[in-house]
Each structure stands twice: as C-alpha cells, then as structure tokens.
Amino acid sequence: MLFTYFVYWGLIILSVITGLFVKHIANEKRKIIAYLLLFLVIGLLLGGRYEVGSDWENYKGYYEAICNYGISWNEIVTSRLEPLYLIINTICASLKMSTSLFFMTIVLLMMFLTFYSTDKDYKRFHYVLFFFFTTFLASALNIQRQALAACFFFLSVKYIGKNVFKYIICCCCAFFIHYSSAILFPFYFIGNKRLGVLENRGIMIVVYIVSILFASFFGDYITNLLPMFISNEKYLGNLENLDIDMEVSTGLGIMANHLLNIIVISFSVPMIRYYKCEWVRNIYRCFIVGVLFSNIFGISMFLSRVPFALCSLKVLLFAYLTYFLLHDSNRNGLYKVVVGIVFIFICISMSYFGIQHGDGGISPYTFRWI
Q1: Number of other residues whose CB lies within 10 A of the CB of residue 369
Q2: 3-state SS record for 241-252
Q3: pTM of the model
Q4: What pLDDT is attached to residue 222?
Q5: d(C-alpha 210, C-alpha 73), whole Å
C-alpha cells in the first residue's frame, strides 16, 4: 500500500512543483513543454497500471478484442458501448498500440482536455491537478468512459454564452463517449440572468439541505420520468437496477463532501466577484445544480452517474475557490486562509481514505506495461 501512496501522491507533489516552476518561466513554449513532460510522466504511470480500477479488466477486454478481431462500422453503431469511445479504441488499435499505451492515451486525453479547459491558466493549473488527483482520480481509473466524457464537458463550459457551436461539439463528444452526457446540452443556458438565484447563498443552502432531507420524494418522482427520456437499450435495462447502491464504508466521505459543498456555496459570491469572470460563474452554477441532483439520487449506482459530469466540475471549481481563499487578503484574509487550508486538508484526507479503502479499485497499485 505504501507504493500506492508513493505513486499517487508523488504525482501530486510533482504536479505542484511543476506548477511553481512554470510560474517563473517567461517563455510560453517552455511552459507548454514543462507541462507536456509532466503529462507524459502521469500518462506513463497511470497508463501502465495493471488490474487497477474496478473496470480495468473490462476496458482491457474491449480494446484487445478490437486489436485481435477488428470492428466494423456497423458494429460500432450498434454496439452497447458508445461509438466515439469505440472509434478511439479502433484508432489506437490501428496504430498497433499496446494495451498499456491505449490506457496512457486515454489519460493524456483527460490531461489535455483539462489543461485547455482553463485556457492554459499556468497561474492556477497546479491547483487543478491537485484536485484532479484528490477528488477525480478514482473515477478516471475506474469509470473511464464517463470520466473522459466529463473532461470534454470541462472544455465545453468555457463556450457557454459565447459559442453555441463549439459547446454543442464538445457536448456531442461527451455524449458519444458516454450517453449519460445527454443531460449536459441544456446547460448552455446556465448563464441566464434569471438563474441568478443560484448565487443567492441563503436560498441555496436551504435548497441544499432540502435536497438531502427530501431526497427519496424527489428521487421517486424523477425515476418515474426517466423512461420517457431514455431510448438506449443498455440504459433502459439499468432502470431495473435502481435499487443497487454504491458501497459505503462509514459515510464519513459523504459528510465530508456535504461540508465541502456548503463551503463552496458560502464563498461562491465573493469568489465570483474576485475573478470577475463568467466562466467561473458558469462552473459554479453547473456544479451546484449537479450536487443538488447528486443529493437527490444518493448512492444509487445508476442514478448517481447522471449528474457525474456536473459534479466533476469540482476539479476546476475547488481549484479556483482554494486559490481565492489563499490569495485574497482584501477582507478577512486570515480567516479565508484557514478555510482554504481546511478545504485542502479535507480533500487530502478523503484521498488518503479513498486509497486505503480501495475506492473504485484504485489500490493497491501495480505497474506492469502490457
């Protein structure tokens, strides 16, 4: 288990060191080269994982079947797996990539999509990587398709209210990698002024608590509506398994997540004012809608994945919130720094226990290039 912490937390330390180093480089090309080298190290280590991730064996099987037997366009279109994900598999297979190199390619795609979703924000990207590894890693190594789809959504958010064509393209990529991403298309309008209530902290804390207390009521109502909007045979079949819950060890992780979300809501307005950026506002709005749905769906194995991409925006939102807390000294500076440190500590603790409990099958870590 010690080796597992060494790998995962070693990548965190390396990412932070790279970010601090890049901040002192003036040349744009050298900055990109530094992050390119970092991504290659991350891709090499995570791509070379062996039997790590609960779905690792399945994804290995899908890829090797295409390598060994090929796949036709008709099979891609009619498969239970999404077509764009199969196309990525097919391209890698046609290039004679090994299984590990294929996994490395998926990791690199996630890295680059996340990087460009921030418009290459060298000032804060190491914060983003920190939260990627502490809050998103288990998903990236386990539910690989949906995690990759979420990274496409990261990129799409910067086009909200600016370029509907690029937004739809990114969401279509997410959709054709994981069909649950269909929920993302309407969020192009999340920046509408009429949705300003999402930034009313008092109301949102009340709504957040209500979404927890009355989760079963709202959940039953939404469950009855789902068959009207689902046509995919695979997902219609999943509706029969709505009662299957995710494994939870103590529930402390759920409580910690609620605490983090309350902190996000509490500091949302000053954070948005600090950045004076529609992009940050839209990330927050998408995220808060996602966590409300997450509260309602609870630990249902199937339903919890519906708002997954929205909730995964925490990779970006937590990074920008923490930077704000640690660097804004205009008002209650020391208080914000303490909250920022507590925020980071909670995420590190959740990462520690997640690795300890083997969340998503991410531990123990074994490296074997195949």
Answers
A1: 14
A2: HCCCECCCCCCH
A3: 0.88
A4: 58
A5: 47
